[in-house]
Amino acid sequence: MAADRPTVEQMLAGLAGEGLFDLEGQPAVEAALAAAPRKERPWYIRGCMAVSAWIAAILIVAALTLLMPHPEDRLLVVGAVLLIVAIVVHNALAASDFASQLALAVSIAGQLSLVAGLLLTLHLGVEPILLITILLQVALVLVYRDWLHRFLSTLVIIGCLAGYLFLIEPRLQLGLGVLLGLLTALIWEKELDWAGSRHLLDILPPAAMGITLGGLGLVAPLVGRTLEALGGDFWWLLSVGLCAVLLYQEHRIIVRHGSAVSTTGARFAAGVTVTVAALTVSTPGLLLAVLVLVVGFQHGNRAVFWAAAAFLGWFLVFYYYNLALTLLVKSIVLFGSGLMLLAVRWLVQRQPGAERRVGSR
Q1: Residues 6+ apart with CB under 8 A from 117
Q2: Does 343 fall in a domain?
Q3: Domain for residue 334, yes or no?
Q4: What is the pLDDT of residues 199-208, one digit of tens each?
Q5: Conformational region of residue 232, where left means phi above 0, alpha means psi within -120 to 50, and beta covers everything else
Q6: How far apart are CA 203 and CA 146, in angstroms?
Q7: Per the domain annotation, does 348 fall within a domain?
Q8: 37 CA to centre of own chain
Q9: Which one of 64, 103, 202, 204 is CB 3.0 to 4.6 Å from 86, fit for a cystine?
Q10: By residue range, what is the domain housing residue 329?
Q11: pLDDT in tens, 98-153
Q12: How many domains, the chain?
């Protein structure tokens, strides 16, 4: 059976024959496969390592605080030393799971010590602390060569940036949500181009995943009255912006497939998108989840696709149970939604060429 497995060249040639791949990108694919690590820890192992690293970091900071008579005077120095030790240990013993986990915990402890030292010694306000934290995380993304650490740093950057914008002008968070959606679409679209640089291949995947999940986490709570209270008279701009990004992604898909998509089909897809955006204008999280689903499916990225699918399921349950409606009205809404989806399916099947495409499968 192993002898019957197609090679990379055969798979790419088959995709090119179906019009799904351009053979000019074959060198980039082969370079990416050659540069990719042969053995990677599963995502759930990395998740457990992240949780254990946070626990270890808290214990380290607590121990240092108890052992030092005046910790506020030394936290800055201790934090800087811990960060340097973490970077050196990880870069020297990156192949060891134990060393990587220990370095991650020490790095997080160093970051917490630095932030605590700034608060206790320099008496800075919240805004400067957030900006310093963002700059620190950007530097760590560049120098700390670890997928999980870069992913966590990206999430911290998004969280601190959202907090900073909220303190300056809450409505700026609406623009941040649209920006994260646009970055999600643009970065994953250029995934094959990362192979041209090993440094980008190390940095962009965890950063892109952090931007994707960070955007979903930022937009998720913005529902109904919460969104209106945050955005004021401009609360609808978030949904409009995400709808524009989703239309852009659809346009890129149509351009990529060329003549395989009819003009009528493209207009129908755009019309459905605008209609759904108008009906869900008070729930922008739904639009962003659909956008990430489309991006993950289009580029064959299962991690992005299933992350968006899980978020979409959670968001629908959260929104459904927080509706100020009776169970009877909720049941009617679900029934109507099912009928609407069946109607959309019927309309899609009536598009020109739909029967031919179904029969070819």
Answers
A1: 72, 74, 75, 76, 77, 78, 79
A2: yes
A3: yes
A4: 677 788 889 9
A5: left
A6: 9
A7: yes
A8: 22
A9: 103
A10: 323-353
A11: 677 778 888 888 888 888 888 877 777 888 999 999 999 999 998 888 888 899 99
A12: 1
